[in-house]
Specification:
Elements: H1 7-11, H2 13-30, H3 43-57, H4 69-73, H5 80-96, H6 101-118
Helix pairs in contact: 2-3, 2-5, 5-6
Length: 127
């Protein structure tokens, strides 16, 4: 009996995720709208947390045990627009790294699930 490798294994494990995270933050910090969110942030520490979080999302061997996402982003004033931009950058970097569409869809679903914990403004609904 064969089993399908986890998304984590399919992308190449922690090393490959680390490469994606490194390029992701290069692009995020190059964006004038997003860069202010990271002023004064310990970037090596943040990158380590992001690698563990993304590895966990992809089914890696270690669960994410960092701060709660809502707590970690409280008071930052993150907008829906900026959250979406960060997601687009992550997906763009993943595509460039050769990550499959199936895995990208999984990441999008996860981003959708956690958005309300990260974004500070209420979601506007059509009347």
């Amino acid at each position: 009996m064969t089993t399908t490798p986890s998304f984590y294994d399919q992308v190449g494990g922690a090393s490959a995720v680390g490469d994606v995270v490194d390029l992701f933050y290069v692009r995020v910090l190059d964006d004038a709208d997003l860069k202010p969110y990271f002023a004064g942030v310990d970037m090596p520490r943040l990158k380590r947390h992001m690698v563990v979080l993304l590895c966990s999302v992809l089914g890696g061997p270690e669960p994410y045990e960092g701060r709660d996402l809502a707590e970690a982003h409280r008071g930052m004033g993150i907008t829906h627009q900026h959250y979406a931009k960060v997601g687009e950058i992550l997906l763009s970097v993943m595509r460039e790294a050769g990550v499959s569409e199936e895995i990208q869809r999984h990441v999008v679903l996860t981003l959708d699930k956690v958005e309300s914990s990260i974004v500070a403004e209420p979601i506007e609904t059509a009347d």
